[in-house]
Amino acid sequence: MPTTLTTPALPLLDAHGISAEHDGTTALCDVSLAVVRGEIVALAGANGSGKSTLLGALAGTHRTSAGSVARAAATRVAYVVQRSSAPDGLPLTVLDAVTMGRWAGRPLWRPLGRADREIVRESIAALGLEGLERRPFHALSGGQRQRVLVAQGLAQRADVVLLDEPTAGLDDEAHELIARAIDAEARRGAGVVHATHDPEVMTRADRVVRLDRGRIVR
């Protein structure tokens, strides 16, 4: 569980000397990374280099074996994983899935209001999902599901947005929609960290951090 920072001048997230394992193998070794407001950081590297593990460690979902991940006070983190499937019988629509983003960190007794519904609408529009709101999630194509997951992350209006290969395998239109959404999140003031193999996406980042066998390489 990330600790909490109390000094406003510090980064939103600050990983210092973290190491971690995945399936009994060292996945990260002495990695340090700071995430600041309004910056896009692209994580590059071959499959198995540690990108997904680092994102999980930053999100607090992957246990670290050494080092620390500190979080500025009241910092909210959204974590968008790679493509997800849903059981065919699960009555989850596109609108339901994106709306779930507004429930992140919200007490169950606090209902969604007009502002929440507007944020959901904006997130759906940003990912080109208008007209699909009532479509079952399980009936979507893989690319559409990925856009829904990104829209769900946007709907959280988090301070830090972490995305695991959000444009992988997408057509040019979906690729551009997600790239624009990432740009917009940074302009909003969020710190964005995403894993990618895409050179074009890397050029849009403020900083590219390359990983090789669990270590940051220069």
UniProtKB/TrEMBL annotation:
Residues 13-217 form the ABC transporter domain. Keywords: ATP-binding, Nucleotide-binding, Transport. InterPro entries: AAA+_ATPase, ABC_transporter-like_ATP-bd, ABC_transporter-like_CS, AztA-like, Metal_Ion_Import_ABC, P-loop_NTPase. The keyword Coiled coil does not apply. Transmembrane segments: none annotated. Pfam families: ABC_tran. The keyword Phosphoprotein does not apply. GO terms for molecular function: ATP binding; ATP hydrolysis activity. It comes from the Bacteria. Belongs to the ABC transporter superfamily. NCBIfam families: AztA. This is Zinc/manganese transport system ATP-binding protein. It comes from Conyzicola lurida. The lineage of its organism: Bacteria, Bacillati, Actinomycetota, Actinomycetes, Micrococcales.
